[in-house]
Amino acid sequence: MSFLRNCWYVAAWADELNDGMLARTIIGDAVLFWRADNRLFAVADRCPHRLAPLSMGLVDGGTVRCGYHGLVFNGASGACTHNPHGSATSVLSIRTYLCLERHGIVWIWMGDPERADPDDVPAMSFIDNAGEHAFSKGYMYTAAGHKLLEDNILDLSHADYLHPDTLGGGSITRSRAKVEERGHTVFVRWFTSGEPAIPIFRPEMPDPMMQTDMWTEVVWHPNGVMILRVGATPLGRAPEQGIDTWNAHIMTPETLTTSHYFYCNSRNYKTDDAAYNAAMAAGLRTAFEQEDKPMIEAQQRALGDAELFDLKPALLAIDNGSTRARRIYQRLVADEAAASSQRV
Amino acid sequence: MSFLRNCWYVAAWADELNDGMLARTIIGDAVLFWRADNRLFAVADRCPHRLAPLSMGLVDGGTVRCGYHGLVFNGASGACTHNPHGSATSVLSIRTYLCLERHGIVWIWMGDPERADPDDVPAMSFIDNAGEHAFSKGYMYTAAGHKLLEDNILDLSHADYLHPDTLGGGSITRSRAKVEERGHTVFVRWFTSGEPAIPIFRPEMPDPMMQTDMWTEVVWHPNGVMILRVGATPLGRAPEQGIDTWNAHIMTPETLTTSHYFYCNSRNYKTDDAAYNAAMAAGLRTAFEQEDKPMIEAQQRALGDAELFDLKPALLAIDNGSTRARRIYQRLVADEAAASSQRV
Amino acid sequence: MSFLRNCWYVAAWADELNDGMLARTIIGDAVLFWRADNRLFAVADRCPHRLAPLSMGLVDGGTVRCGYHGLVFNGASGACTHNPHGSATSVLSIRTYLCLERHGIVWIWMGDPERADPDDVPAMSFIDNAGEHAFSKGYMYTAAGHKLLEDNILDLSHADYLHPDTLGGGSITRSRAKVEERGHTVFVRWFTSGEPAIPIFRPEMPDPMMQTDMWTEVVWHPNGVMILRVGATPLGRAPEQGIDTWNAHIMTPETLTTSHYFYCNSRNYKTDDAAYNAAMAAGLRTAFEQEDKPMIEAQQRALGDAELFDLKPALLAIDNGSTRARRIYQRLVADEAAASSQRV
């Protein structure tokens, strides 16, 4: 099993590049990122001369100089622009990757540059529109493969058991999920009517334990981007009268068994409340780092290098969304492999 | 080379279950142990749904609930008794293991349940009969295979070099061992007449350096249980007039190269002396943890994943007991493999 | 790819044996070294009985006693001189290695003893002749293969980028290296005329930034010993009127991907200045430990277990010396393999 290449991956939060270079491995490729003159650069983090990581060198505007023997490369074209020891021949060029910044995120295209279309970046305008005190985000390196992490979001019933006092409360389990494939995406929606809101929402209701209408929606994209809308309103009232949150959970593979986990949260209430915002950020971090991460890393350790489905796990109704996502991903990877072998 | 399955393994000291669940891997199987209502439970530590360790969940009486999606399993039958997301079908059952508590030890049967006979648990009534201040025990996780650890006990001449000031003194080396196979067990006996007792026994003699009769006996069982009797009496006196200790050294494989090492000691002298008992416990712990463990782990590192005998070590007379034990073990494993292939 | 065996390897600085035994793995062999009665001993660090490391035992004069079961071995012949458990047969002997002390270094011959000629030890009289305050040395365990480390010295242009404020300054890059094969050695010489000296030499010139003649010479030996002469004199003056340093950089393989790195430095100026000597020692240690080592270990991580040349790195003119050295080494190893198979 390998990775999908022709898609936009989330490489970093844009502000991760504010203090200089960032070295990060994406689907197995060591990549060096930096920003200069408001332009992003992403190149193979490996000098073609002696394999030294270019991230141990220096960037200067749009160029990077290897720290070992001084070769200089253009970050956009990959061409060697200066070889202090001879001519800068084309043999000395490095691979560059298309990248762009949108929604406060650095996106990288790992596949065939001719197939890259910036319009394929999933829309996340909620990030752009969120006020300073109505938004938080995080990055979590995780020793588990992207599929296990995506499974976790595509089956949010886990919140009732893993986060019972914050994000769960039993309502997701009681409401059966609606699952739809929409093109290459998977849409999952849970809806409950007549239950108290999930614990973190209760203080926002007129009466904490009152009956509500509550919705949770996930859209999964094959590049590991999942966008979640989670909200509640007093029973029978319009959604607009309730509270709503927009979230992203994004799993970018480092290797088959390790991932870069990016997450963020925005909301439509207490939007100027810095203290609440900080508490929300801390609470989510705790849930993801202390509850999700240990469980999923334990799953990965139990799996070792095996694929989950090769071990014939028992399938439940709640696996509908994740199973569909895994099939779509598998089909897309197979399509890429077929296209690649035809070209040869 | 694989493990013997049809035998009772020591899984834990019984009091290790006093504070809740215990997750421990036995001959490669991840097992979850707990006690409820005076009954022991041992089940596969892996949810059949997504392979999450059940030890990250909760036990309630004789059931365990997975911490990830809430499936509940009966610890005795392994049946799923509650699936919050659908019906609890037989596909959701988990493996359970026979286990029993005897001699303050949790025993587990890793093989065919129909062949399990509680009478096959090696008798260790000395544990039951030992007074509070005449008994100590310990557990030592060891990065070495069970065979190297069993070799160490089956050739106690090592005490003369590795523990010269406590358990050795040269007498074991000078007395040639008597070795007998008794069914599937190996019996080794050293006896010296006219030598001072081993260092830790000397203060118990009428005169520390006086001549004694001294005996050391080991009975090895294929499940890694070794029972030792070690004592001394002034030369020519009856054993009953001397001092005697009963000990167990038990090696339960975790993997081929790591082991659970359980040990205990009881004695027939100073049986009410709490301070002496504590000093004895500390002394034995030091010998095993600081002297035996580093040496045997170094052996394992030198071996890597190889079998000792594949590297053609030089055999000495002192290896008689361990060589016989290795052969019996190999034959029993081969018998199990043959029986298993006939059944298929 | 394997190691050259028929050569003298540097095992240790002689004073590393002043405080007792030294266990060190050389080209994959675990070896135990010690000195007694002004004689050196080097034996396989593995008891033939149970593979226990003899370095966990005790040396007594020219013998070593295994700490596990007391077998005693003669460090010169390897014969077992005492088996407390039976006769000391020839089957119990251990491998011994020829070794000798010269230039303050313990040398070991890992190959066929009949081919060992002490005259093949590279001459390093500069070590013997250096005054106490004109000499420093160090040892640096390095998680990189010996070839990458030798490449680093055979192409000193790296100093201009990795050590720009101390050992480099651009002059090595600007002067093209002269490379010669001399028998089984490789000689590389850089010479600049009219440039300021390298930074650490500038304070020693009549005027720091004055024009100089500057020389850097490396002689590489297939056993990983590289001898460097680096010096400078005011432009047009005789070398004898300038300053000169003699250095050794020695890479002894532990495994294919880890090395023992020994280095030393002597000089012809400020030879009685203890403070300067200490500052020079500290400066070199910083350069090697903080600048070279991280870069070369990063190269090795990028390589994994692959050979550099199998990944088709781009070759530059500066790789001339290292490429020749790699070819000579490869040829010598192939010759050894051929000779060994003929003998069989």
Automatic annotation (TrEMBL), chains A, B, C:
InterPro entries reported for this sequence: Cholesterol_7-desaturase, Rieske_2Fe-2S, Rieske_2Fe-2S_sf, VanA_C_cat
Keyword Cell cycle found: no
Matching Pfam families: Rieske, VanA_C
UniProt superkingdom: Bacteria
KW Oxidoreductase (keyword) present: yes
PANTHER family reported for this sequence: 3-KETOSTEROID-9-ALPHA-MONOOXYGENASE, OXYGENASE COMPONENT (PTHR21266:SF60), IRON-SULFUR DOMAIN CONTAINING PROTEIN (PTHR21266)
Protein name as annotated: (2Fe-2S)-binding protein
Species name: Sphingosinicella microcystinivorans
Name of the encoding gene: vanA
